[in-house]
Each structure stands twice: as structure tokens, then as C-alpha cells.
TrEMBL record:
Gene label: si:ch211-284o19.8
PANTHER family: BAX INHIBITOR-RELATED, PROTEIN LIFEGUARD 1 ISOFORM X2
Protein name: Protein lifeguard 1-like
Alphabetic keyword roster: Membrane, Transmembrane, Transmembrane helix
InterPro entries associated with the record: Bax_inhibitor_1-related
Topology versus the membrane: Multi-pass membrane protein
Length: 309
């Protein structure tokens, strides 16, 4: 018991303990755990942050599409990249060159066709030879149908030089022989009137299509319906033939192909909703040439129905 009691701790505030406690050297001075001088904090680095607007429809943002700025393509894209976004037909120089080429080819075609028509009409010898060899007319019709279909359907054929010009020449010569053969069965005065009327109508439609703001290129569906109606009308006219019916059919056909000529001219001009590729100058010349020839044939039908012969 005495050993345990002698081992009891003595409180530190006991004066007897202070007198009897051994003296120790004070501990060395330790620096405080925090800096005593001025603190240098690192300066914050400013990171550029851009605001990415949400992709919202114009109705929710309150901005209409008409109010959106139209950026300059040259400022957004380099010049060499900007050329990739511009259609070749939007270039005014390319468009004018395309128009000149098309109408030059059409003029040559019409001169060749109307020359053949005049020879077949005014020369009695040629007229008799043509009318006695009807198999040449049928051969010309087959050649025209085959080559014309290839030019209209196969774009590689209509764009490959010089095969496209060769095919167009074959179509022009075969159709010229066909039109000349048909004209040889009509009076000379009727053929001359049909020629003059066709030139006046075609020139007026071409000038009107180039100047008007009306868009005829969106009327292809309507023209397709009218073409089917005219085809059915002509088919049933075979069984109920009369001169009055022939005049009506001729008037409807001339009017329909006048509308086709207006549409095709605007496709060539390239100022409306739809336009032709500048590489399709042979196809463009072909469709305009066919429109003018069909107007001539329908006017000739009107004059033939009104003739006493």
C-alpha cells in the first residue's frame, strides 16, 4: 500500500511540488506555423470564355430570319473556298455566254429547217420526189426518235463533245426532212403564212420570257396535265374528223407549245426558280428548237383545216 500511495501523482499547483520539482532548460524557440511576413498570393490567370448561344428556333428567340445579318462570304471563307459555294450559273459572264451559245445553235437549226421547208414547198420536182418516197420520211422519223431520245435522256451523251453536236445535227436534219415533207402537202401561201406567224410568235415569247417577272418554270405539272389532255383529244379526233375539229386541235397545240417555249426560255435564262446547267447547252437548244417547230406544225394544221383543199 505504501508503494502505491507513494506513486500517486502530485498536482502541479502544489507549492511543495514546485519547490521539489527538478529544473529543466526551457525548450528552444519554434517559429509559428504561419508566415509572419506579407503573403504573396499568385495572380489569377484570365481565361477567355465565349458565350455559346443555344440553338433555339427563331420563334423562341424572338428574332425573325429577315432580321438576321447576312455575313459577307469573303469575310467568313477564304476566296478559294468561297468559290465552292457559288453556283456557276450565278456568274453573270457564264450565264450570258450560255444564253448566246444556246440561241446561236437554235438560229442555225431554224435556218436549216426552214431552208429545207422552202425547197420542198417551192420546187415541184423535189415535192414530187418526196411525196413518192414516203419510206424516207418514216426512216427520218425513226432516226429522229432514237437520237433525240438519247440526247434528252443520257446526259453523258449530250455533254460529250463533239458527239453531242453530231447528234444534234442528225436530229436537225431528220426533223427538217420530216417538216419539209409535211409542208409539201400544203399550199405555198399557207406555208409562208405559217413561217411568218411562227417567227413572230417565237420572237415575242422569247422577249417576254426574258423581261417578265412571272415564273413559268414552276408550271411543269400543269403543262404535263395539259399535254396528256391534248394527246387524248387528238386520239379521239381520229374517229370524229372534221375541219372545225382540226382547227381547234391546232389552236390548242400551238397554245400549249407556246407555254412550253416560255418555260424553256426561262430555264435557259436562269433568273427564276429552276434553271439548266451551263453544260447542257445542247439539250437547251434541242428543247427550244422542238418547241418552235411544233408551233409551226400546229399553225400549219390550222391553215390546212381552214383551207378549202
Amino acid at each position: 500500500m505504501t508503494d502505491i500511495e507513494s506513486q500517486k501523482p502530485v498536482p502541479e499547483n502544489d507549492p511543495s511540488h514546485a519547490a521539489t520539482a527538478p529544473m529543466y532548460a526551457p525548450p528552444p524557440y519554434m517559429p509559428p506555423p504561419y508566415p509572419t511576413g506579407p503573403v504573396m498570393y499568385p495572380q489569377p490567370v484570365h481565361v477567355p470564355v465565349s458565350f455559346i448561344p443555344p440553338n433555339l428556333p427563331p420563334e423562341e428567340t424572338g428574332i425573325s430570319k429577315a432580321e438576321e445579318p447576312n455575313p459577307d462570304p469573303a469575310a467568313v471563307f477564304p476566296p478559294e473556298e468561297c468559290q465552292m459555294f457559288v453556283s456557276s450559273f450565278e456568274d453573270d459572264t457564264v450565264r450570258k455566254a450560255f444564253i448566246r451559245k444556246v440561241f446561236s445553235v437554235v438560229t442555225i437549226q431554224l435556218l436549216a429547217t426552214f431552208t429545207v421547208v422552202c425547197v420542198f414547198t417551192f420546187s415541184n420536182t423535189v415535192k414530187a420526189a418526196v411525196q413518192s418516197n414516203i419510206w424516207v420520211y418514216l426512216s427520218s422519223y425513226i432516226i429522229f426518235a432514237v437520237v433525240g431520245t438519247c440526247l434528252a435522256v443520257f446526259s453523258t451523251f449530250s455533254r460529250t463533245h463533239p458527239w453531242n453536236l453530231l447528234g444534234l445535227s442528225v436530229v436537225t436534219l431528220s426533223l427538217s426532212y420530216m417538216v419539209g415533207t409535211i409542208a409539201s402537202y400544203h399550199n405555198t401561201s399557207a406555208v409562208i403564212i405559217a413561217l411568218g406567224s411562227t417567227l413572230v410568235i417565237s420572237f415575242t415569247i422569247i422577249i417576254f420570257s426574258a423581261q417578265t417577272r412571272l415564273d413559268f418554270t414552276v408550271c411543269n405539272g400543269i403543262l404535263l396535265i395539259l399535254s396528256v389532255d391534248l394527246l387524248m383529244f387528238g386520239f379521239f379526233s381520229i374517229f370524229f374528223y372534221s375541219s372545225v375539229l382540226q382547227i381547234v386541235y391546232g389552236c390548242l397545240g400551238a397554245l400549249l407549245y407556246a407555254l412550253f417555249l416560255a418555260v424553256d426560255c426561262q430555264l435557259v435564262m436562269g433568273r427564276q426558280t429552276y434553271s439548266l446547267n451551263p453544260e447542257e447547252y445542247v439539250y437547251a437548244a434541242l428543247i427550244i428548237y422542238l418547241d418552235i417547230i411544233m408551233i409551226f406544225l400546229y399553225i400549219l394544221m390550222i391553215l390546212g383545216g381552214s383551207s378549202k383543199n
